[in-house]
Amino acid sequence: MAASAEAAKPDTKLLAGGTTLLDLMKLNVERPSRVVDITRLTGLDRIEVTGSVIRIGALAKMSKVADHGAVKDAAPALSESLWRAASAQLRNMASIGGNLMQRTRCMYFRDPGAYPNCNKRNPGSGCAALDGINRNHAILGTSDACIAIYPGDFAVALVAFDARVIVKGAIRGENERTIPVDDFFLLPGQTPHLETRLAPGEMIVGIEVPRSATLKRSHYLKVRDRASYEFAAASAAVGLEMEPDGKTIREVRIAVGGVATKPWRLRAVEASLQGKTLDEATLRAAAAATAVGAKASGHNAFKIDLAPKVVARALMTLGGVA
Length: 322
Description:
- By secondary structure, this protein is of the alpha+beta class.
- It has a domain at 213-319: 2-Layer Sandwich (Enolase-like, domain 1).
- Helices cover 28% and strands 19% of the residues.
- The chain contains 13 helices and eleven strands.
- Helix 11 packs antiparallel against helix 12.
- The chain is globular, with a radius of gyration of 19 Å.
- The termini are far apart.
- Residues 1-214 form the FAD-binding PCMH-type domain.
C-alpha cells in the first residue's frame, strides 16, 4: 500500500477527515514534514452488519455510522456514542479511524508556546497539568508523568463490547493484524507520548465488533458541562443481557470515558453484577466500585463521585429501573 509506505517515513501524518490533525497543526503541536492523503483509498468506507459481526471501515464517516439503520438496531451504544460526539459538521467530516486516533484536549498539551513542559508532546519535560488547572483531567490510569484524559466517546463503547482494531502497514509486508481495542490504547506510564500500539508505517483499516445480546441492549450516557459539542465530564457505555425471568442479570458490559487516560473497562463491576437482581440498590452498590484506584489531582476530585453515579444512571436507564 503506497500510503503506508509513505507513512513509514519519519514525521509523516495521515490525513482523512483532518478534524484533529489540521487543528493540531494550527496550534503548532503537530509539525509533520509530509502529510499523506488517504481519502481515495478504496473500500475503507464500507459498513457491513452480518449475523455475527459489525465491520466498519476506517474511512467511514462518523455521521454515516451513527445513522446506519443496522448499526442502530444491533448496537445502540455505538450509534449513540457517535451522535453525542462533536458537532454535526465535524461528524460529517471525521472518519472512524481518525476518531480513534484523536489526541487529548489537555490545554497544556495544546499550547506549546505557553507550556513547554508536557511529557506527551515533549518527552521528559514534565507535566504542567499536575499542579495546574486540571478539572478536565483523568482520575484513572494516571501516572506522575501524565494525567491527560482520552477525549473520545466511540472508543469507550468499543471497549465495552470487545471490539477489535484492524491495522495494516508496509513494514509488515502488507499483512493485517488485529488488536483488541482495550489493548490498542496505552496507559501513559513514563511514556505518555506513546498512545497506541500502532507501529511506524501502520494505519487503521477497520474495526470489528462482535454482535451480542449485551450489544443489542446497550446504551451510552454522556454527562457534560453543557448540552452539546462538549467533551464528557464522565460517560458510560453499558449493555445488559437478562435471564429468562427478566429480573436476574446474565451478563453486563460497562466502560467509562471522560475520567481516564484511555477508554476504561470496568470488569470488576461487571463481575459483581452477574447473577444479581436488577434493582436500583444493587446497581448503585456495584457502581460504587467504579472509582476504585482513582487518584484526584485537585480540581478533578468531583469525578470520583460523578463517575459511579453516571454508571448507575446508565444501567438504570437501560434496565428500566426508576
